[in-house]
Amino acid sequence: MPKAEIVPIKDQTEKPRRRRSDRVRVMPRVPRPGMSRKKIIEESRRWLSLINAHKLNDYKRRKIVTETIDNFRYYYNRGFLEYRKAVTESGEYAAVEWSGRGSHFEDVTGRRFIDCLGGYGIYSAGINHPKIVRAVKSQLDRMPLSSQELLDPLRGALARLLGELAPGDLQDCFFISNGTDAVEGAMKLARLYTGKPGFISCIRGFHGKSYGSLSLMGKAEYRLAFEPLLQDVYFVPFGDAQAVENELRKAEAVGMAIAGVVVEPVQGEAGAIVPSPDFWPRVREVCTRYGVLLIADEVQTGMGRTGKMFAVEHWDVVPDIMCLGKALGGGVMPLSAFMSTPEIWKVLEPNPFIHSSTFGGNPLACAAGIAAVNVTLEEDLPGQAAATGEYLMGELRRLQRRYPEHLMEVRGLGLLIGVEFVDTEFGYSVAAGLFKRGVLVAGTLLNAKTLRVEPALNIPRPLVDELLDKLDDTLQELTA
Ligand SMILES: Cc1ncc(COP(=O)(O)O)c(C=O)c1O
User: Which domain holds residue 452?
Assistant: First the structure.
């Protein structure tokens, strides 16, 4: 069967080439032009020159836009073109990002946006923080990844810094590259230490999408197609310590063995849901009483986002295992970790390779992590998050009083803020309206009618005011 031609969105300078071998190959799900090996080398060379270029002319900028759309459509996942609602619904289908600094980023055509999404919480220190970038560049020039056999000084140094910073007796640390793997490791550690299989998680909780972490997922849409997941996971409403206790009591009565209770301090993807003040202390007490590990998933809330270095500190609670990610890499490198106490950690020591990762804790990531810790403390990012968060939420609540039929709730802690609108469609329209006005926000994964506002923790006050003005402007337009 002949290959279908790609119909380019705009002019495409290259004509699709066919390979001889194409004739006998089964047509892929999405048709693509064949590229010879020589052409692939040329293409990679062209992209390298774009990556290394200091300046791009208009032609190249426009070509990057049309190519990126085609590349996503034919080689990545065309679903993303439709899904990025804040981008697509504002008619800016082809917004292709290119550079950023602080609380601004630019698309490839040079349009500037205020970043109030923070890369889903990774840019707590802002985009491209110079101190963090410098540390990574210096380490890059010296040694990018590790030999694996020699001891890696930055890994040790970052582990110590986190061990000193973490609450209570959380002292030991293992590094990986994303939040999912932090949760995965925490689950394995809990099973290894307790010798028990089960977990309790929360409805609408979000902990990642690998099989273990997905088993804790509190929304059916993301789990159903992959069932059966881990079997011994039980769900309770978020913020309900009594329900946790009831579940543990039932489990004990019928001989089901629970290793740990996994909870986000503030539910992030569910839309910045803050539990009542007694929730965390009560869950701590219940877990201790039943001999079950308390696992705090601080992937999104950690590193100052909620106004404290770690969100559990709002309630003076020390979990048994804590997961970190997102902002831990300073918005420059992927880096995550799970931490626990020396008593629990000892089960990992007889065979330290019982849980390992080739890239976890690599020197580039750890250089970024050390710099992120330094910036977070030196610039008092948690303090800034608390102050700016209070101001922003106060102003958002004032807006809520002006648009009570459409803006239903403002909630959050520090700069993890959810703004809930009357329905999903309206929420999307607000995100789109803001994007059109040069401000990026987005929905949360589990609750699309809630916009997440997660800017850099050091976002300057005038930019916060600009966000508020533009939100007001958008709401006026949409409710007119
Ligand atoms: C609380 C929490 N845990 C885990 C994850 C998964 O992290 P990642 O996407 O880096 O794997 C997320 C991601 O949003 C999260 O918010």
Answer: 381-479
